[in-house]
Protein 1
Amino acid sequence: MKERAIEHKLVTETVRRRGVALKFVSPGCMGVPDRIVMLPNGKIGFVELKAPGKKLRPIQARRIQQMRKMGFKVYVIDGMEQIGSVLDEIGECAKWN
């Protein structure tokens, strides 16, 4: 399974939950997560996507640590089975209809 397939599923599931998963590109600032996930009621999280078994690059690990120290929710997903639980946590287990 490729990272692209996991990313597509994340975007699709986020939209199903009435949210958006914006591509996060920050010129001049390496290691930022791939997506900014925004869900209803002001819920936000950052998601780094990896192909199964692939590791974070050192700059990515440092950036994630930095963001978490500032209080942001940052997740690393390397399988489609993780998407639902990550979105639940970002949305603080809100009910989705």
Protein 2
Amino acid sequence: MAIFSIVGIGIMAIMSEQLIRVKTLENKIMASWVADNVLVEINLTKVEQTENWLQGSDFISNKIWYWQSREKIIKSIGIITVEVHSHENSNAPEFILEGYRVIDE
């Protein structure tokens, strides 16, 4: 009986860890979708970017995702960085996506 109890507790611990990892993976995937959407919107609507952070939020999968983007210009290429956070005041982003655009001179 004791062996079954120990095995049962071990299986519960493994299942709990797997659920945490699945939730983390789900958050990373949703954050990547938000970053992709923001980067596409910036490129399609030609939103003016600066070196200061432009901030916004999106509602995806019953959760509000907070994003910020900025552009650094190096020669004739603008490098756009999009950071996605799961909480408004979070220091560490869930996902970072970088894209580029050619600047006409």
Protein 3
Amino acid sequence: MKARIAASVVLAVGVALATAGCNLVAPQATRNIYDPSDGVGATIGDLALRNAFIVSNDGEEGTLVVTIVNDSADTETLEVQYESSEGRTDGELELVPGRNDIGPTAEQAVTMTGLDTVPGSLFPVYFQYGDVEGKELLVPVLTNALESYATLTPAPSA
């Protein structure tokens, strides 16, 4: 009788290991954080930058497109810095609590001039606010060739 119980326990453990054994040794891919779109993301303090990319047809002038979620209860001022042909260039964004869309069709936009890059490359952009340590992201430079990006390039200057 005891042998039958022991055999049942061993069989049950064997079946459990055989059917779920992969989870014991293989990492779960669903736990990996990744950017599922064309842009890149980062978390800086209470600010979550999501899907950041630059739309530029000539590599000289472009528009920063990004969604930023401000998880704090306060409006935060985010500094955006990059190296242009004129030297270090700064921009500021006022981020209210919640979701903030940044781009040419949104309430706030960052037009980047003097980029000296080419579409298809990665361009370093530094983001920082308040006393929180900032982060430099390698932001993809895209063209407006895709229909969804057609309206995102900077307006031609007169």
